[in-house]
Request: fold
Amino acid sequence: MNRFFEAYSLKSDVVAAAVSGGADSLALVLRLNDWAKAHQVKVIALTVDHQLRSESGAEAAYVAGVMKKHGIEHHILVWEGEKPQSDVEAAAREARYDLLCGWCHQHGVTTLAVGHHCRDQAETFLLRLQRGSGLYGLSGILPVTNRNDIEIIRPQLNDNPDDLKAYLLGRQIEWVEDPSNQCEDYQRVRMRKFLAFLEQGAGISVQRLAETTAVLARTRAYFEDKIADLIANHVRWWQGAAVSVSRSVLLAQHEEIRYRLLSELIVRIGGRMYAPEAEEVLRLSRGLEKPDFKGCTLGHCELFESRNKLWIVPEDRSATLMTTAEWDKCLKSVPQYAKSNLPYKVRRAIYNQVMKQNNG
Reply:
């Protein structure tokens, strides 16, 4: 825990921790609380009751008891409503993060800790390898990420799950065994069992796979620095609602850099968690090389060329045209654009953003 916070400084004096009742998350919140006491930081535990199993309510109540015993503030968040019939694992994960981040937003908490460890890292590497992921996917779970303006930290990412269980045993704390962790209907469970085979049959250990993701993550960091530099120096932002970049700058980049830059800009303007499929972005990137490029829609964005620039705006399916009077009204909030000869779609994006801010 100390090594993590030496490398990644905490940006606030309150941190939420996701705790399900399993060994990994219980160890996380208790170890984090021990560290926090020595650093004047408050820990708040959050448990999501997915209501997918009849035991989930009792498990959440058990966690509440453990947290109370250790003087840790605790809240139970319930996933209400109809549950999906397929791809339940992915839907539950999205619902969990939505509830956790939503609670953090409502209560002014900007950091959320989750309990991923090195076996999770190894499983993720193999799952993404199976899907044919590239560098970004194979670099695995990152120690710190951002989701909806909440910083997600993973202080146990380098820890072995057996060590976390030993920690709980040493403190005489029981944990909940989720039966779904043994259900081979879930791909991650099948991959977990395959990991044991890899280690016994080929000497490829969890630790070695985790080390491989760390090597790839360093290469990813180089690309991210390169993309950040390009964005800072060559991408112009228009009220946070649209971006423009010189087409000649784009075409001067190596295809991989151009692909990464386009993916990043589409994610930011489209407001999505993930970039579109790689093949779609690569098709766009190669299309920019053609003199007859007309534009396209991708990732909830519209991309088009005007005045030797590529413009990216949020996709707007409204059939109602913005009037001159509406734009003039908008300019009272953003007078700096009064003399900018902007394409209509960019003005419309700025107008939508300003109206959203004024009505919010």
Remarks:
- The two ends are 40 Å apart (CA to CA).
- The mean pLDDT is 91.
